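cron nightly-structures :: item 1 of 1
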Amino acid sequence: MKFFHILFLFLFAFGNFGHAQSTASVQVSTFCLEAPQFKAEKKIWVYLPKDYSDSNKDYAVIYMQDAQNIFDSKTSYAGEWNVDEYLDSISDNNTIIIGIEHGNDKRMDELTPYPNEKYGGGKADDYLDFIINTLKPQIDTTYRTLKDAKHTTIFGSSLGALLSFYAIIKYPDTFGNAGVFSPSFWFSNRIFDLISERDIHSNSRFYFLASSDESEDMVPDLQKIVELLLRKGVTKNHIKTIIIEGGHHNEELWRNNFPEAYQWLIKN
């Protein structure tokens, strides 16, 4: 099973097969930002609530990984998450979504906190330095945002979920909530040690999603993580765990479960 998981991660990184027409909402825009941590530019996607231009209020922010796959079928690997369509459809959206494009062949390096003996990686701190010290200041200057950790969420799937979990544990003063879909905890056992080594912020909130058919390790690894968090004193009401029977490691699973995760994460 792990071979097919790796194959998916490879295709996920390189799989922009160029659908003919963009499906992104008019609420979505993009810009490029220099990332000195990687000596490269990063393409950033921004979703603004429909009432943004007509209000004076400040908005919570969700930072999402693999932006190619969350808004637009044209740039996605195997269908988008429909994040913009969902948010366009609700009347109480008070959140700005920031999508960060993965670095294609650099994706595994960017999104993994520790190296894997076989696959390498391990440069997540550089990636998070970009978010915390380059991207977030730009977003907070350009848009009306609620800047505190309570109103700042980090969200991802697969390697992006591993990154998001690592971020909330290591940088709780920046990220108060994490959406963790189908996390690649198998990549390094050091992620389990991280929980034991660090104090977990009492206000940190975790939304976990996994499916029984993703890999043989997916659900057991997730359950182990949750148990470790509970042992460290995280309260049960700060952890939401959803196990789907029969779902697969793909955008369909994540798309179908984004609305419920979004609603739980924004209820601070």
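cron nightly-structures :: done
Residues 124-142 form the longest helix (19 residues).
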